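Input.
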Amino acid sequence: MAEADAARRLLRRLVAELRQRGHASPEAATALALLACRLGQASLAASLTELAVRGGQVLDFRISWLRHRLAGECLPPGPGHAETLARTRAEAMEVLDAFYRHHLEAGDVDLINGAGGVGMTLWDLADEPARARLAQPITRIALSILEQRSYGLYHGRSGGILLLRMLGRRYGEDRQVTAAVDALLRHLEGLTPAVLDRDWLGVGGVTMCYGQPGMLTALGPEVDPLVLARFVDAAITGPALARLDELLADADADADVSVCHGLAGLSLVTRFAPGWRELVGPDRRARLAARLAHHLDQADDQAVAAIFDTPFLLSVIEGTLGTALALAECETTSRPWWGICVSLGDGSAAVAGSQAIGSSR
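Output.
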C-alpha cells in the first residue's frame, strides 16, 4: 500500500535526526531498527541493529528482548554472529528474569506492566525445559488476570485468554480457556450501543486496548467460527463500526491516532486478528491507512525528536513510532513477531516463537 510510504518518510527523517545527533541510545537504535525491519529495509535495519547491540546491557526488558530478536532477524550470518546471538539472549534473559521475579513478588500480573507481559517475552526465548518450568506459573498469572473486572486485552480478562492460548490451550479443548471465552462472549452480548459513550470500551468506544479489536486479538487466527459469529452478531458490533466510520469521515476531527486508544491500533489489529480484519473490510482499512499516513506526514520535528527520548513502550502505544509501525504492517507479509513486546501479536501458534508445549499444531 502506498500509505506505508509515509512510514518510510518518517524513517528517513529519523535517520537524518540520528546523523545530526551523532549518537543514539540502545533503546532509540532498537526502535529505529524495528521500524526499518518491518518496512523491509534490510541494509538499514542491519546497520541500526548493529548500533543497538553495541550499546551494552539495558534495563528495559522489551528492548533487551527486541535486540536479540532483531539480531536474529536482521544481522547477516558470518563471523561472530552466533556469539552476538548468544550474548544478546543471555543479556535479555538476565533482565527478563529480574523483572519477572520482581512483579511476581509484588503480585502484579498485568499484561503490560507486570508479570504477564514479561512472561510472554520469557516464553518466546525459553527452550523446551524452561517452558515446562514456566507453564504452571504463567497459567496462574493468566487465571489471576481472568479475575479482573475489565474484559479488555490490556488490563483485563482478554489478556488472560491470550496468555492461555500462548501456552497451547484451545477453545473447545481446554476447560479454562473455553470458560473464559464463553464468559467474554456473554459479556459482549450483554452490551448495548449506549456503552460506546460511557468509555467502557475505551476512548471513543472502539479501541484495541478495551474494545472488540483487542478481544479478537486475544482469540487469535484460530478463533472458532461459532465464537466469531457471536462477535459479529452482538448488538454492540454494528454501532462500534459505525463509530469508526464517524472517526474516519471527519478529516478535521481530533481523533486519537495512537495504538492503544486510537486509529493506529485499529489498523494494526487487522494484522493480528483476522476476525477483526474481516469486520473492518477493505474500504475501512484503506481509509484507516490514509488517515494514519496523513498524521505521520504532519508530524513536526519535535515529534520526530521525541522518539529518541521516549521510553519504547510509550513510543509504541501512545506515540508516532506506533503509528508508523501500524502503517508498516499494512503491506508486510512476514509474521508480526515483534508484537509480543507490547503484549500483542500472533506470529505463530504460540503467539510468538516456536511451537507451544501442548499445542495441537
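The first helix runs from residue 5 to 21.
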